[in-house]
Design brief:
Quinone Oxidoreductase, Chain A, domain 1, 348 residues, six-stranded parallel sheet, 10 helices, 18 strands, Rossmann fold, seven-stranded mixed sheet, single chain, 2 domains
């Protein structure tokens, strides 16, 4: 069984990942079909990690996948070989205090595919064959492609961010950062009934994708750095802001645009930043973090199956599994690529 393994920065190899594991009751053996390259995958490939999280051993990358069931364990009547599924990478333990408190995304023993946070690392899903728990499998409708199914994971990130905001129906929303997560978030905001979605980025191609995903208005802050100033009159315009770029300046600018008692959700992973707390205090703004997802994965697949969100504008390139290095290089070029999908050779 071949897998995409990262050994160190810029050292990505397709190599043998060992023999197939036997199935336990309640498990499925699946043939991985499509895999989306995520920003965290890129950090491992380009830099060997992010922040304090570093590769300490070779690790199979990948957590955004769709698959086809090859074999089912005992007592699994609802699944059969040949079914097409999206696979949730979120595997909380169910027994720690955060799982018991209804926060499985903060599980103390989380086994999230392709994560170097713990050691030994949690190996990823960019491999030809994978054994999963039945709870991770979510059936795809006949009209949902395998590539769309692979994007259920990043779509879930946006859905959880909306949940952290406390709802967006009828609200005016600003999204800064229109990469894959930002643009999938825009699609989710449209489906959730936001009355106005304003998107800001530094790239025309990213903003074009934002318009296709449902943005009402777009602003290129590279060409027009003061474009958001128009929204700062009368203490601010937006009810909710989602900061998905990881830029400290975007967060600071957003504070001037959000109205009193508005909500800012920080989606992009950033380092230490300074913000004008006088604005947070004076306008009683809530600043909230968002981390991964869990229950939202099933919702994401349902939205894809019912065609309530079209994720295809985010998919810019599809490359074969054997072209993994070229795919990762392309995914790192934000002038060319939005979301790069790996094709593991399974027909749709």
């Amino acid at each position: 069984m071949q897998a995409i393994v990262c050994h160190a920065p810029k050292d990505l190899r397709i190599e043998d990942a060992g023999d197939a594991l036997p199935l336990a009751p309640g498990q499925l053996r699946v043939r991985v079909a499509r895999g989306g390259i995520c920003g965290s995958d890129l950090h491992y490939y380009q830099h060997g990690g992010f922040g304090a999280v570093r590769l300490k051993e070779p690790m199979v990358l990948g957590h955004e996948i769709s698959a086809v069931i090859e074999e089912t364990g005992s007592a699994l009547e609802r699944f059969t070989a040949g079914q097409r599924i999206s696979v949730s990478p979120s595997r909380p333990c169910g027994g720690c205090k955060y799982c018991h408190e209804g926060m499985p995304n903060h599980c103390l023993n989380m086994r999230f595919y392709g994560s170097a946070m713990p050691f030994p690392h949690i190996q990823g899903a960019f491999r030809e064959s994978l054994v999963i728990e039945a709870s991770q499998a979510h059936l795809l409708a006949p009209t949902t492609t395998l590539a769309e199914g692979a994007l259920a994971e990043p779509l879930s990130v946006g859905l959880h961010a909306i949940q952290r905001a406390g709802g967006v129906f009828g609200k005016r929303v600003l999204v800064t950062g229109c990469g894959p997560i930002g643009n999938l978030l825009i699609g989710s905001l449209q489906a959730a009934g936001a009355s106005q979605i304003v998107a800001a980025d530094l790239s025309d191609s990213a903003l074009e994708c934002a318009r296709r995903m449902g943005a009402s208005e777009t602003h290129n802050l590279r060409d027009e750095p003061q474009a958001l100033a128009r929204y700062s009159a009368e203490k601010g315009h937006f009810d909710v802001m989602f900061e998905a770029s990881g830029s400290a300046q975007a967060l600071r600018d957003g504070l001037t645009c959000v109205r009193p008692r508005g909500v800012i959700v920080t989606v992009g992973l950033g380092g230490d930043v300074s913000i004008p707390l006088n604005l947070v205090v004076g306008k009683e703004i809530d600043v909230r973090g968002t981390f991964r997802f869990h229950a939202e994965f099933a919702q994401a697949v349902d939205l894809l199956n019912r065609k309530l969100i079209d994720v295809t504008p985010v998919i810019s390139h599809t490359l074969a599994f054997g072209e993994a290095v070229q795919a990762f290089e392309l995914a790192g070029d934000k002038q060319q690529a939005m979301k790069v999908v790996l094709d593991f050779g399974v027909p749709d």
